[in-house]
Amino acid sequence: MNIPSVRLDLLYKAHSDAYETKALEILRSGAYILSEEVAAFENEFALFHGAKHCVGVACGLDALWIALQAMDIGPGDEVIVQGNTFIATFIAVSKVGALPVAADVKDDFRIDVEDVRRKITGRTKAVIVTQLYGDIADMDEVLSLCKEYDLRLMEDAAQAHGATRFGKKAGTFGDAGCFSFYPTKNLGGFGDGGAIITDDKHLEEKMRIIRNYGNIRRNEAILIGKNSRLDALQAGLLRVRLKYLDEINADKRRIAAFYSDHIKNALVKTPAIPEGNVPVWHQYVIQCKERDALKNFLFEKGIGTDIHYPIPPHLTKAYEHLGLKPGDLPVTERLAKEILSLPVWFGISEEELKYITDAINDFHG
Ligand SMILES: *Cc1c(COP(=O)(O)O)cnc(C)c1O
Q1: pLDDT in the model for residue 97
Q2: Are 37 and 231 in contact (CB under 8 A)?
Q3: What distance in Å separates the CA atoms of residue 331 and residue 108, rounded to the nearest whole number?
Q4: Cα Rg for the chain, rounded, in angstroms?
Q5: How far is the CA of 308 from the centre of ligand 1 (A)?
Q6: What is the mean pLDDT of residues 129-144?
Q7: Do 78 and 126 meet the contact criterion of CB atoms below 8 Å apart?
Q8: 304: pLDDT confidence band, cut at 50, 70 and 90?
Q9: 3-class DSSP assignment, residue 298
């Protein structure tokens, strides 16, 4: 059997008529950038979260970057980010001129709030929590720490569309929730896209200005902005997909439940979910001390897997200037060597899942 790590065509085929009808409607409309379609998507995405405002942007990196700029975070400021995130979280901080300060995580992949506390200095302005793999961190602890030190709280929710903790959705815990609609995300578009949700009217207005060259009105720039607009085609197709997001997330839960029920191998640890959390399984990540051997073993059997992420951002060449060395974030670094993401794509069959779990259970190191 041949099972790729990612497959997107089944997701499209499940509702292809709806996407094609919408695409044609937009092509024929003559309105392609920041149109009514974008405004409608922003309303629907805000409503889905119970948030007051949503600003559509060009991608997830821009969502983070624009939110930071709107909070006036810049040179001389520090922003605490978690060590085991996608590098975009670090880049957004760097791009506004601030310093990303990496905090370690716990064995369950969630940000270590005690390490965040240790890393707060007089220059710290904000904390960005990544809701990694589609699950939610201990937000109550993070929130009270941010309140104690008067810090802004942002969520990188690019992997967590629809995830909840005690019924509250990812992206709604702090000042701003940032999303990506990269095609592989739970709410994926047909190209790049992103959005920020917030309840703060002032932030919302400023983010709208930043995404459109800093213009408050046409040809009237009040700050140095960007060109980071969601286009009508993505917005329209995302509106269609948003209707199916619960269905998509339910399918991910079916897959995760199958893995959790069927993986029985003392060398492999399956993810633990804290009480109150309902993850959306952007990734299903197992831990194994002999990860590389397991990855090869599965590859030999035709099973594709992935690693999110093999090199923590603080140890990349791009972030050499932070002066961090191996051992500085011990848990993050150990996890990077032990984690393996299994296929979780929409529509994967029971037969394929059984093939994967049988193979994992046959692995003896
Ligand atoms: C995908 C992702 C991003 C970046 O999103 P893009 O749309 O690719 O720019 C940022 N953070 C996390 C955690 C992501 O998974």
Answers
A1: 98
A2: no
A3: 10
A4: 20
A5: 12
A6: 98
A7: no
A8: very high
A9: helix
